[in-house]
Amino acid sequence: DTLLETDAFTSYSIRYPSDGLLIYGFVNVPKGDGPFPVIVSIHAYSRDGEYDVFYPYADFADFFASNGFIVLHPGLRNQPPSDNGENLLRVGMTVDVLNLIALAKDESQWPSELPAANTDTLGLWGMSLGGEIALRILTIRSDIKATVLYSSLTGDIERNSKQLYAELVDQQFQQDLQLPPEMFERISPVHYYDSINSPVQIHH
Questions:
Q1: Where are the alpha helices (H) located in 71-156, listed in sequence order?
Q2: pLDDT tens across 32-77, in order?
Q3: Which DSSP string do the residues of 77-91 spell out, in sequence order?
Q4: How far apart are CA 146 and CA 138, in angstroms?
Q5: At a CB cut-off of 8 Å and minimum separation 6, what does 173 contact?
Q6: How far, in Å, CA of 132 to CA of 202, rounded?
């Protein structure tokens, strides 16, 4: 469905499969023929059920689209109408973004009615908790061309979980802190920064 149309871009709702779940969000598409570079925008923390996954101005998506970028913005799991699923240490949300990137990179999956996307120039925008997810993705995928971290969490997952629980008192973060310390060490991107190829710009 069309969510919004401006002089510069059109916003559409999206739905895609992610490890057995259906994830909803939106895509902002610039006016013109393209091909346009692509930004995957990963949103900040929101309590389950309180995030509007169809808000096309979210996370500066309108700015990017107005300047010639296709913006893919997943709402991620546990945010209605997306399905609920396991998300210990934000791994489930990371999987959702990885699956979206894989779909975007597959030209056969790109809707023919939309302008062409240049997915060879795919970048990430990660805000707050979305920045933690972006850091994970950067240590896994070597084909991300550029990344912006905006008020991001760190690459130390144990530190993030402690901070999130102290400030938000959300049950999911208390569950995280019951895990053994060695699991945090294995899963934290901070220990794998040498695998990152993408240039990274940090705003904090």
A1: 91-105, 129-140
A2: 988 999 999 999 888 776 778 887 666 688 899 999 999 999 998 9
A3: TTSTTSPP---GGGH
A4: 10
A5: 161, 164, 165
A6: 12
